[in-house]
Amino acid sequence: MRGLIAAMLAGGASVFAFAPFEVFPLTVASLAILAFLAARESRARSGFALGFAWGLGAFLAGVSWLYVALNRYGGMPMPLAALAILLFCAYLALFPAAVGALFARFGRGGVWLRALFFAGLWVGTELLRGWLFTGFPWLALGYSQTPPSPLAGYLPVLGVYGVGGLVALIAARVALTPWRNLRAAAATLVAVAALSALGYGLGRVAWTSPTGKPVDVALIQTNIEQGLKWRPELLSNWLESNARLAREHPADLVVLPETTLPLLADRLPDGYLEELAAPVAAHGGDLVFGVFLRDARGAIYNAALSLGASPSQAYAKQHLVPFGEYSPPLFGWFYEFARIPMSDQTRGAPDQSPLRLGGQRVAVNICYEDLFGRELIHSLPEATLMLNLSNLAWYGDSLAQPQHLQIARVRALETGRPMLRSTNTGMTALVQPDGRVAGVLPEFQEGVLKIAVQGHEGLTPYARWGDAAAALLALVAVLAGAVRRAGRP
User: Fold this and answer.
1) pLDDT at 489
2) Structural domains for the chain
3) Among all residues, which ones are annotated catalytic?
C-alpha cells in the first residue's frame, strides 16, 4: 500500500513539470519513482497496480479540468460529471499500468538494457494512447521538455514521443543505478550529461529558414464567457463585438478565434460577413475567423473562413473531439445527461491545402487538432505559417490554457514553423520556430496581440519522419530487452 501511495503521489507531482509551472526535471524524478518501485516487483499484477496508481495520480491532477466542461457548461449533474472524469482518468491510467506490468514481469538484465526496455515500453504506450479511439495525447511526457530543458533540442528530430522516451530512459537509468557503486554512478551521470549536451547542441540548429516578407498580424482574443455565448438574446452583442474588434485593429492578417460566430454562416444576418471583412480588406489584409459551415448535403463543419484582399478560402476541422463534436458509436445516451451545442459535426477532408494569405501559406488547425503532430506535418513543406484557432472557455480558469500553449510550443519546434494562436479566453500568442513565446495576451481579458511574424520554409527531421523514428527506436529497445530475457538460461 505504501508503494501504491508513493506511485500515485509521484504521478500527481509530475503535473508540476508541465505549464504553467514548468519544473521540467520533475518529470524524470516522478517517473524514476515508478521505475524504482516496479523494478522491485516480479509479478505483472503488482507492476500493473503501481503503473495504474501513477497514471491515476497524473491524470486526475493534470486533466481534471474536463469536469468544468461537463458540469458547468455541459449541464451534467455533479456526481455524474465527477464519475465520468474518474472513469476517463482510469482509462488513461491503463497505459502506464501496462508499462508497469510488462517492466515488472520482463525487465531483466543489466541496468542499461532494463532502462532501454522501460523507455521503449513508455514510448509504445504513449503512441498507442495518442492513437486509440482517435487518441488523447495530452500530458505526453515530452510536452514537459520545452525550453529551457536541454532535451527540447530533440523535439525537431524525434518529436514529442521520442523526447518522452528520452525522459523515460534517463528516469529508469537513475532509478536502477546502484549509487553506492561509484563506477555505475559515474556512468549514469556521464550519460545524462551527454544526452543533455547533445540536446543543447541540437537546440542551436536552425532546421528551417525565413521566407517571404514579414506579415503584420492582429491576433484577437474576444473573451466571450462560455455560459453566455450560446444565448440567443445575446447573439447581436457577440456579432457587434467581433465586428468592432476587427474594425479597430486592421493588419495584413487579422484572426478571430474558433467559433467566434456561434452559429451557422448561412444564418448570419444579411450583409454581416461583408461588414465584418470590409475594414480589413480596405487595409489590404485578410480576415480569418471561426464559424460553422454547412454544405449542400446538410453536413456541419467547425471551420475557419477567410475573407478580405485574397480570394475567400476555408478550412474544416479534421480531428473532431469525441462527445464534444460528435457522438462515438453506442454513446448516444451521453447527450441525455449533457447539453453540448453543435455536437453533431462532420470531419473535414484530410487533404486540405494551406490558405494563401498575405503572401504566406497558412496551415490552419482548430483547437484540439494541434495535439497531433503527425497530422500537422501533412501540410509541410508547403505551409510557411501554422495558425491555431481555439476556444478553451469550456474549461474555465484551469491548467488547460497554459498546457495548451506549451503543446503549441512543441508543434512549433517539431515543424520549424511559427505557430500563431487566436483564442477566446487564452492563451493568444505567437510561438517562434525555436519554441520561444514572442508575445502572449493575459488570460480572460479582451485584447489584441499585434505582432510581425516571419514565414519559414524547409523541413525538420521530424517533419520528414513523423513518429516513425520514435516508434522504431522504441521497438528496438523493447526487442533488445525481450531477446536478452529469452537468451537467459
Assistant:
1) 40
2) 2-206+466-486 (no CATH), 209-459 (3.60.110.10)
3) 258, 317, 367
